[in-house]
Amino acid sequence: METMVSILTTAYNHAPYIAQTLESFLMQKTEFPFEIVIHDDASTDGTADIIRSYAEKYPEIIHPIFQTENQYSKGVDVYGFMLPLVRGKYIAQCEGDDYWCDERKLQKQVDYMEAHPECSYCFCNSYNVDLNSQVIKEVSPVNQSRVLSSREMIAKPEIYLATAGTLYRTKDSIDFPKEMLAGEAGDIPLRNFLMLRGNAYGFAERMVCYRVMVPGSCSDRYARELKKDPESIIRKNRAYLDFYEKFDEYTEGRYHQELLPNINEHLFLIYRLESNWKKLRKPPFRERLDRLPAKQKAILFTKYYLPWLVKGYRMMRYGKRGLEKKY
Questions:
Q1: 112: part of which helix (H) or strand (E)?
Q2: Domain containing 41 — which CATH number?
Q3: Least packed by Cβ within 10 Å: which of 120, 200, 294, 314?
Q4: Domain extent for 266
Q5: Is residue 218, in this structure, part of any structural domain at all?
Q6: Mean pLDDT over each residue of the chain, to the nearest integer
Q7: Is it the case that residue 265 has pLDDT exceeding 50?
Q8: Where does the record place the Glycosyltransferase 2-like domain (predicted)?
Q9: Which residues contact 148 (CB under 8 A, 6 or more apart)?
Q10: Each residue of 50-82: pLDDT tens digit?
């Protein structure tokens, strides 16, 4: 029987969690074969050894890729190493520190996709969990299981969908046009492209767990960068804007109105990080600015109109290092 699903997993220094991740795949009860393609990005904490032991135990299922140099730090898209190994009709994804909590997750999603060829993307509700797998929050992109139109998904592409809960057809991802690649825009480019192939289906069941603030994880990197390197967050937001421009051009403006709220959201975040009071006071950003706490508005105003005061404060508090702070 041919492989039905290829599970793509990326790992880096996930030694405390990777076994739970792999076990959550191996526990799946399915009527079809599936495979696990896992990429270790030169971990230094023993993650690779754990992956290797699982691959030796399940050689027909687990296909590992081991790097000797970290590819993420070079800006390399590691899926370029993984996709050539994919044999499944469908692709599921899960980061090396996240995991599945429903043993029928794959079967449920494949059953739906097989019965509904008009559906090009499905996802499920999820849990946010801490380092000890304790539930922090229930995340519900949908209140009940239902179909979502392409326009609805594109209008709200940054509605939180756990990567671990998604499933889509391999052939659609292979057809993804390279001209729509946009740096650090995450899952959004592929998700929006898949919405040009059909609709989406959201399962209200919580079948996956997203672990937050794991050292080196996306959530951890974002929090640290926001504090220490706001410029990198600005670059990420500009990457989204770059993608929306490319997507708008690719679709000849058919979804321009759906894209506008997301474009404005990223512009607002950029202007806020840049303390660009003048831009923030203009529509459509003024309403968002007015909703900010008074203290935050005062800081933005001071940074824009009284930069010398900010520099003086930083000099007193941090010394010469304070003058190096741009934001």
A1: helix 105-115
A2: 3.90.550.10
A3: 294
A4: 229-324
A5: no
A6: 88
A7: yes
A8: 6-134
A9: 142, 199, 200, 201, 202
A10: 999 999 999 999 999 999 999 988 878 888 899
